[in-house]
Design goal:
Elements: H1 11-29, H2 34-38, H3 48-67, H4 78-82, H5 106-126, H6 129-162, E1 189-192, E2 195-199, E3 215-219, E4 222-225, H7 231-239, H8 251-260, E5 268-269, H9 275-278, E6 289-292, E7 295-298, H10 310-319, H11 327-334, E8 347-353, E9 379-382, E10 399-401, E11 410-411, E12 415-417
Parallel strand pairs: 8-11
Antiparallel strand pairs: 1-4, 2-3, 4-12, 5-6, 6-7, 8-9, 9-10
Helix pairs in contact: 1-5, 1-6, 3-5, 3-6, 8-10
The structure holds fe (ii) ion.
Fe (ii) ion binds at residues 54, 84, 145, 149.
């Protein structure tokens, strides 16, 4: 699905996209029980039910209340419950306590969604030409926002399920494809000449403010791998003592290895892990097993390694005699033939801090808080993962997480200087 800049969308076209995106969220929650949907396994992860409500709150607060005359909020108390981080919109329920919201129930959240959906449909029925650009802009932003939460819904429930010794599957295999596709195991370097290159979003299609303005950067000649680092590659790093060799690690990363007891990517299970018996995994497993959305599976060597922190990605690159690409090197390589797994597999950590581009201006109004205020202490990831809704990302898309985060579908691709 392609969400374009609003002026190119007629109300009926946008209505169809709205229905599709809203339905997709409910479809993602459908395999989960009410208990599953309430749990919060760590402060960074939110309950499924909260994602369903918060994305609805966004449309209610940012679109309907300012733009739909006569709109009545479903429940004024939800303003406090489901505001995520918008200081301009007042106080809110503390993020680490979202899992304590046993009420409203899942059914009540579904009713909230239906109420707001009806409000949006009415707005689309009645909006006049003078208000259309504003309505379409905010609605489009809300749809991209909801797609971002669709991915978080999956990564957050996977973390919650990983905390259960039974290691239950989010969904049995056979549903919509969630397996990582693979390419041939041989990795090739693609030489890049570098030079002065234009980076950032261009054109009329939708983009977030953090992808703009398009600007020129200078890249030295470099090479970039034509595929992602896969589980087989990463298993060699582990077998070579990667997690026991401080010389491979950034100082903060080595501290995390020590304090967190990291010995493998998140969700990798050693053959003697006692949970394998409870989870119905292979008895007397002979190698690494990996917990994913489909439950416990034997490690597939050719599948891209995932659930890595930036620190682990950087240590692997050091071990491999290479480095991570900058976000600009990654984006420039997108245009080249012969690059594989650039999107739809795992987000790829880059060596770039999440900073504003020269001349960056946040979105107007409340949405000014959407991206800009997070531009400190985080690293940029590029590409898009198996959990990213189809069509949601683009070459200029900038995801970002703190360097220790490892509950996302995050991996890496190597680069080196020429
Ligand atoms: Fe949000």
């Amino acid at each position: 699905m392609k969400l374009s800049r609003p002026s190119t969308q007629a109300p009926d076209a946008l209505r169809e996209i709205f229905r599709s995106v809203r339905t997709a969220s409910l479809d993602l929650a459908a395999p989960l029980s009410a208990e599953d949907q309430c749990i919060q396994s760590m402060p960074d992860a939110s309950p499924t039910k909260w994602h369903l409500a918060h994305t609805t709150w966004f449309f209610e607060t940012v679109l309907l209340q300012p733009q739909a005359s006569g709109y009545r909020p479903f429940d004024p108390r939800f303003q406090y419950l489901f505001n995520s981080y918008y200081e301009a919109l007042g106080p809110r329920h503390p993020r680490p306590q979202r899992g304590l919201l046993t009420r409203p129930s899942v059914d009540e959240v579904h009713a909230y969604r239906a109420h707001v959906d009806a409000g949006v449909e009415r707005l689309l029925d009645t909006v006049d030409a003078a208000a259309w650009d504003t309505v379409a802009s905010v609605l489009t932003l809300g749809l991209h926002h909801e797609q971002q939460h669709q991915e978080l819904l999956l990564t957050d429930i996977l973390h919650a399920l990983s905390c259960n010794p039974l290691l239950p599957a989010y969904r049995a295999a056979g549903g919509p494809a969630l397996r990582l596709a693979t390419v041939a195991p041989e990795m090739h370097w693609r030489a890049q000449p570098g030079g002065h290159l234009e980076i950032g979003h261009e054109g009329q299609d939708f983009a977030f403010d953090n992808e703009t303005p398009r600007h020129r950067v200078l890249l030295r000649p470099y090479a970039i791998a034509d595929r992602l680092v896969n589980c087989g590659d990463y298993a060699q790093f582990i077998a070579d003592g990667g997690y026991q060799r401080p010389e491979l690690w950034l100082s903060d990363g080595w501290a995390a290895v020590q304090s967190q007891g990291w010995r493998a990517p998140a969700y990798w299970l050693a053959p003697d892990d006692p949970r394998l018996g409870l989870a119905g995994g292979a008895p007397a497993a002979v190698g690494w097993q990996i917990f994913g959305l489909h439950g416990v599976r034997p490690l597939a060597h050719e599948a891209p390694v995932s659930q890595l922190s930036f620190y682990e990605a950087a240590a692997y690159a050091e071990w491999a005699g290479a480095r991570l690409p900058t976000e600009f090197e990654w984006e420039a390589a997108c245009a080249d033939a012969g690059m594989n797994e650039m999107t739809g597999h795992v987000w790829q950590w880059t060596r770039s801090s999440y900073d504003p581009y020269p001349g960056f201006r946040p979105l107007p109004g409340v949405a000014a808080e959407y991206n800009g205020k997070f531009m400190v202490g985080q690293l940029v990831l590029r590409g898009g993962s198996v959990a990213t809704p189809a069509g949601h990302t683009r070459p200029s898309y900038r995801n970002f997480f703190p360097p220790a985060a490892r509950w996302q579908f995050s991996g890496l691709r190597l680069a080196k200087d020429l």
